[in-house]
Amino acid sequence: MIPLVLYVLLASAMFTIGLYGLLTQRNGIKLMMCVEILLNSANINLVAFSAYLPNVNGQVFALFSIALAAAEAGVGFAILIVLYRLYGTIELDNINALRW
């Protein structure tokens, strides 16, 4: 069995990569991908700790998190499609539609 530390290291590396991408990227699709990486790192932690402890609560929460991530991706891509139709770009620096 793989030690729990390796799962936590993998999840922390994924979280760091996702957070770096979230802070540096300005493309809408890349931002959505970074958010998905962040959510997947949390899911890895949930499932790893659930497997380490004899409890299925982490796996159930991971399933809810996956469903929530799918819904978030659908809504996010729909917003990006609307912004692309309006402005012709998905570079979020060039779009100021969400400002008052």
Structural account:
With 100 residues, this protein is mainly α. It has one domain (4-94): Helix Hairpins (Orthogonal Bundle), CATH 1.10.287.3510. It has 3 helices and no strands. The termini are far apart. The mean pLDDT is 92.
Label the CATH architecture.
Answer: Orthogonal Bundle
Mean pLDDT: 92
Low-confidence stretches: none
CATH topology: Helix Hairpins
Number of helices: 3
| Global geometry | elongated
Question: What distance lies between the first and last C-alpha atoms, to the nearest angstrom?
Answer: 54 Å
CATH C-level class: Mainly Alpha
- Biggest sheet architecture: none
Features:
mainly alpha; single chain; 100 residues; 3 helices; Helix Hairpins
What's the short version?
The chain is 77% helix and 0% strand.
Topology:
Elements: H1 4-24, H2 28-52, H3 57-87
Helix pairs in contact: 1-2, 2-3
